[in-house]
Design a protein that fits this description.
Blueprint (H helix, E strand, L loop, with lengths): L5 H13 L15 H10 L2 H18 L1 H13 L1 H8 L7 H6 L5 E2 L2 E2 L2 H24 L8
Antiparallel strand pairs: 1-2
C-alpha cells in the first residue's frame, strides 16, 4: 500500500514545488511515451524524492500504527488530485484536454487544481473523522 503513495506524493511535489501550477506532462510531451517519460525523468526530481518519502513512510508505518492510520485514507482522498495532475496514461491526456484551463465548470464556478486540492483535503478529513468515530464505538458483543 505504501508504494502507491509514490503517485500522490509525486503529483504534489511536481505541481507545488518543482513545476508550479503545471500538470505532469505539460510542455514535456503529448502522452506517456518512452521519449516523453525519459525527458520527464531527466528534468523532474519529483519521482525519486517521492520514492524516498514513500520508503520513509513505509518504514515508519512498520514501527508505528498511527502512521498507517493517517496514511491509508490519504491514498483514497488524493485519488482525484493524483488523476488531475498525472492524467491517465495512454488516453492522450484526456483529463487535461477535457477539464483543465477552465473547461470544467460546476454552475458558474470554474474548477481549478486548487479546488481539487480542497476536495481531497475535505475527503481526507471526513475519512479520518469516520475512522475516529468508528474506533470509539463500543461493540456490545465484546462487553462481558
Amino acid at each position: 500500500m505504501s508504494s502507491l503513495l509514490v503517485l500522490p506524493i509525486t503529483a504534489v511535489l511536481h505541481h507545488l514545488v518543482f513545476f508550479r501550477g503545471m500538470c505532469m506532462l505539460n510542455k514535456i510531451g503529448p502522452d506517456y511515451t518512452l521519449p516523453t517519460i525519459r525527458r520527464w525523468l531527466s528534468i523532474d526530481p519529483s519521482l525519486p524524492i517521492a520514492i524516498a518519502l514513500a520508503l520513509v513512510v513505509l518504514v515508519a508505518g512498520l514501527r508505528w500504527k498511527w502512521i498507517r492510520t493517517l496514511v491509508a485514507p490519504g491514498l483514497v482522498a488524493t485519488l482525484p488530485l493524483t488523476l488531475w495532475v498525472w492524467d491517465i496514461p495512454g488516453t492522450g491526456r484526456i483529463i487535461c484536454d477535457s477539464f483543465h484551463d477552465g473547461r470544467l465548470r460546476i454552475g458558474s464556478t470554474v474548477v481549478t487544481t486548487g479546488w481539487v486540492y480542497v476536495a481531497s483535503t475535505i475527503a481526507y478529513l471526513l475519512m479520518m473523522l469516520y475512522r475516529v468515530r468508528k474506533s470509539s464505538e463500543i461493540n456490545p458483543a465484546t462487553i462481558r
